[in-house]
Design goal:
- It is a single chain.
- The chain is elongated.
- It has one domain (3-84).
- It contains 4 helices and no strands.
- The chain has helices at 3-35, 40-55, 59-80, 85-112.
């Protein structure tokens, strides 16, 4: 099977599935509005939010997921007893300052000897 043809078929199926989901969501939300379970403005907002999520237009949701992943990673590193990069960088800075102070003491003691 031709790769470009396969990709085209997959894209068309994805678009078709998204379209079906959107139509079904609109239908269900209209039913909920008619039954009084949902306010018309809430229905419209809900449909818009779901369609944005389907299209990948939810940067705040992606940012929230990214923050959660970072917290999970940090917790795992802590549980394993491993240092985070920030902690390693802070220790390198402290070592550099200590080495510099030691060199200064050595050079000042060389002058006094």
């Amino acid at each position: 099977m031709d790769q470009s043809n396969l990709l085209q078929m997959l894209l068309l199926r994805g678009l078709g599935t998204t379209s079906l989901v959107a139509d079904r969501l609109r239908h269900v939300s209209q039913d909920w509005v008619l039954s009084g379970r949902l306010d018309p403005s809430q229905a419209s907002a809900m449909v818009d939010d779901v369609l944005k999520a389907l299209r990948g237009e939810t940067p705040e949701l992606e940012q929230q997921a990214e923050r959660q992943l970072e917290r999970n990673r940090d917790q795992l590193l802590q549980d394993l007893g491993l240092a985070r990069q920030k902690e390693v960088d802070e220790l390198r800075g402290r070592i550099d300052r200590l080495e510099q102070a030691l060199r200064q003491r050595q050079s000042s003691s060389d002058w006094t000897d």
